[in-house]
């Protein structure tokens, strides 16, 4: 019950935050450019077309009125038409969301599965050879540009060794989506060939996203475990002679995990940001490639839509992380 | 010395830090008899916690035991290390900080159950499973002890998280947890310093009464002479890592022999008298004065005091003092 | 003196210091160090896509320009963007965090809500939108990165100021009649300076990575500027044959970011004895 109240309280912050986000994107698209209509129409559009756009989108109205229009549009799911695809931006984005999510979720799973145990073990064996090796990996992982790592992997595994496909998400045109998550769809259909194909395409793009994420998780888990190890309750448990394995794997781990969980929201944000460049390298048909193409085409509506959309997704993810944390940590309730 | 069940002899402990080596315990000797409440008093930083941790066998990683012996019930604690039967079983612990000494993520009941799973008096050595019969016996015992430490509605309390309890309640639970394994010795390191002044005395008296009823000894550290007077049978005073004087509580306060004890007692605020501090400063453990560490401040100091600290003055009626020129033992 | 000696003993910090110093030297002495200084603006189409060798140490690019020389000049751009953008962000964010942390009223709540909204979107995503609106130019990259980075500093300083606000020495200063400005500048700022220095160092690395991403997306300084991210983007057309093309700028980014991270971590150990290596938090 208290949890429900807490979730409700957190959710109440959503509308103002989203409104703030809309205001930021509105400022970028309507206030920064000296002539938003010109930007919308494209550099070479004739004057008449620019003027028509100006009237059509009310760009000649006072700013507060424009903002009001903008908010009503966004709330009703209208983010304008993409210059490039000639379709509503909102439709484009929704269609591409599953591809990006599939990539991000696999990257996250991999990062957590590898990062947590490595973080715990390197904290327990502090200054051991393993700890030093893990430190080298995390320090490089955090310093690597994701797109560069993506290109290197592509160069090595796809182009030189021919182990994985160079680009795309699946062989052929791809099936009619059920959920849009190809691996999940394949399982739902019982189509193992499709599962294998989509996993082969996933393998490489997942890596440049997962490695920096893993580095962050290792770092926080290690620091968290060390921090908890020096806490008073661990001292008490040792003084009372509780078995070491119980102290570590039950009490220390649980506390450290909560710290790591707070980072998951941040890591997810980095994954979404990394997806823009990594998807571009592998032509992965998700939000990132969409954003990349929009930048190349100066497709203005599409970019602003992408920003709003990604921001909203990120805000929702953070909300979920907040609630999950409250469930795990009794103090937050 | 057949009735001595804890004996610390000439124990020296140093800490290695970036600033150098600090000898924090310098040839400390101390002995306790079964069933007594012993107070370990001294200003903050004099090494009380370090001594308590040495006995518990949980010194920090950077601690180095330079010399000495530490025996408990005939067992060598210093080198063999505290075994499963001793730590948390024969010797238990009441921490200074009842706030941080619980894991915030588990209920009080979970944490007591965890302790009983490994440290219940019914557990036979090496037992890994927590059999239902033992579990329910332990539960009975827990509820009874929680009532004994005057916590109302213990069943409800077990379902609470530590942060839902007040400091006093938490410390009562800690005392219960220290007594649940039916120990022979409880080490209580400033158990009430973190609590509200109004409930300190209450909790200390409770600890004393319950321990005495169960035949457990208590080694109780404090920087407050007043509390030592109220609840201890005997008192040892330490100064800058050296123990100065040990005596029955009435003797300690009534006829102190060590110059430091005298000055310390004189400096206590009494009605009408102005506060008299001891001139000078406590030395740093990184560069302690040689010999008796009190000599720079001691009015009775002579050259010999700088050479050694090992003046063995024959104890009179269990009143031992570590000083080259102690005050006379005043017969009453 | 003591902390200087400790600094030199810390291997991570030393590595970071060396890398960052090398970066600065490369930027300052780009002309004398480079083998083809003219290749930043002019090039030699007859020497297109040559692999590394005696003449072109790290190979040539699609225009026949020497990659090694371009990398050196790219160091200037990298430092410029990192230093200016991070400084702007600090200069905007720190006062906001100070004011919001010092006072407890609706205005400080508002300031923090605003920065929270900024922090609710991944930095690079907002920076993309701004850089795209402003058009590809180096000053726009700097603007986009600082506008999206200040909230991070506001948050950090806010949290530290709030916890300092109850410290005895701050309350004493207030009780003695010091003005808020005086308390903030003379008492709060010195106490949080070490943490700001550490974060700024690590922030340089983060800014370099973000700037490289913008460059890769074509939102950085326009050609022929020797921007490392853009060099990597250009190389893609010529893979897998011109493997050296992307390698050099990528390694440069990796080393430089690593250098700042190591330096920041090391400085934290030296400046902030509360948090030793064990308890360090990422940044
Ligand atoms: N882990 C440690 N490393 C270095 N010095 C320590 C450590 N723990 C305690 N000390 C130092 O040892 C001395 C005695 O500390 P402590 O035993 O806690 O005193 P008390 O409990 O009497 O206040 C103090 O000077 C303290 O600073
Ligand atoms: S040994 Fe000497 S210096 Fe120390 S207390 Fe006794 S008289 Fe004073
Ligand atoms: Mg202490």
From TrEMBL, chain A:
The protein's GO terms of the molecular function aspect are: dipeptide transmembrane transporter activity
Statement: the UniProt record of this protein carries the keyword Cell membrane: yes
Q: Does the keyword Transmembrane helix apply?
A: yes
Segments passing through the bilayer? 12-32, 103-124, 136-157, 201-220, 251-282, 302-321
Q: How does it sit in the membrane?
A: Multi-pass membrane protein
Keywords on this record?
Cell membrane, Membrane, Transmembrane, Transmembrane helix, Transport
* PROSITE patterns linked: ABC_TM1
- Provide a GO CC annotation, any one: plasma membrane
- For this entry, the protein name equals ABC transporter permease
Q: Which family does it belong to?
A: Belongs to the binding-protein-dependent transport system permease family.
Provide the protein's localization.
Answer: Cell membrane
Question: Per its UniProt record, what SUPFAM superfamilies does this chain match?
Answer: MetI-like
Using the record's annotation, list all stretches that form the ABC transmembrane type-1 domain. 97-325
Please give the InterPro entries that the UniProt record associates with this protein.
BPD_transp_1_N (IPR045621), MetI-like (IPR000515), MetI-like_sf (IPR035906)
Automatic annotation (TrEMBL), chain B:
GO MF, one example:
ATP hydrolysis activity
InterPro entries from the entry? Answer: AAA+_ATPase (IPR003593), ABC_Ni/Peptide_Import (IPR050388), ABC_transporter-like_ATP-bd (IPR003439), ABC_transporter-like_CS (IPR017871), Oligopep_ABC_C (IPR013563), P-loop_NTPase (IPR027417)
Which subcellular locations apply to this protein?
Cell inner membrane
One GO term of the biological process aspect: transmembrane transport
Kindly state which keywords UniProt assigns to this record, in alphabetical order: ATP-binding, Cell inner membrane, Cell membrane, Membrane, Nucleotide-binding, Translocase, Transport
Membrane topology summary: Peripheral membrane protein
This protein's source sits in the domain of life called Bacteria
Among SMART domains, the record links this protein to: AAA
Return the similarity comment.
Belongs to the ABC transporter superfamily.
User: What protein name does the entry list?
Assistant: ABC transporter ATP-binding protein
UniProtKB/TrEMBL annotation, chain C:
Where, per UniProt, does this protein localize?
Answer: Cell membrane
Residue ranges the record marks as coiled coil:
none
Keyword set for this entry?
Cell membrane, Membrane, Peptide transport, Protein transport, Transmembrane, Transmembrane helix, Transport
Pfam families, per this entry? BPD_transp_1, OppC_N
One cellular component term from this protein's GO annotations in UniProt? plasma membrane
- Specify the superkingdom: Bacteria
Major location category of this protein: membrane
What parts of the sequence cross the membrane? 79-103, 110-131, 137-156, 196-221, 242-263
The similarity comment for this entry is: Belongs to the binding-protein-dependent transport system permease family.
Name the UniProt record assigns to this protein: ABC transporter permease
State the species of origin: Limobrevibacterium gyesilva
